[in-house]
Specification:
about 10% strand, 2 domains
Length: about 150
């Protein structure tokens, strides 16, 4: 482990991290030198339902990729697959995102398109925050409301 950390230190010292990229780490004693400015606290919860719905939300919304037209799209078959939605709660979440305009179906229901502005308004999080597992009270309330209705 010590050798691994020394290798990372050497890489950070000699390589330049892109200006628009954020380096963050999360492990025990990550708040010690030299990692102090990179340490991130991931929000864990003891509520099993909330944890499941957070994972589904993150999985669904971060699956989108940019296409040549500039929109974030994903094949509908991938989004509706059982690996993505897992169970009825995940399907209810996908349906709610569609009903609220965060997602929309285009091209004869072949693709889902992500509306990032609507996601920010409705959930209070952006794409990068979801990738970092940074949830808000607004996003937690949304997924719990969907789970209660499923």
């Amino acid at each position: 482990m010590r050798r691994f950390l020394l290798e990372i230190c050497r890489c950070i010292r000699h390589r330049r991290i892109r200006a628009d990229a954020d380096l963050s780490i999360s492990w025990p004693q990550g708040n010690q030198f030299p990692w102090t400015k990179y340490d991130t606290i991931i929000q864990y919860t003891d509520n099993e339902e909330l944890a499941f719905m957070r994972r589904r939300l993150r999985s669904i919304l971060t699956a989108f990729r940019s296409h040549s037209k500039g929109s974030m799209q994903r094949f509908a078959d991938k989004m509706e697959h059982s690996r993505m939605v897992k169970d009825a709660r995940g399907q209810a979440l996908l349906d709610a995102l569609l009903a609220d305009g965060i997602l929309s179906l285009v091209k004869d229901s072949t693709f889902y398109v992500l509306n990032a502005e609507k996601m920010g308004e409705t959930l209070g999080v952006n794409y990068q925050a979801l990738q970092k597992q940074q949830y808000t009270a607004q996003s937690d309330a949304y997924v719990l409301a969907v789970a209660a209705g499923a």
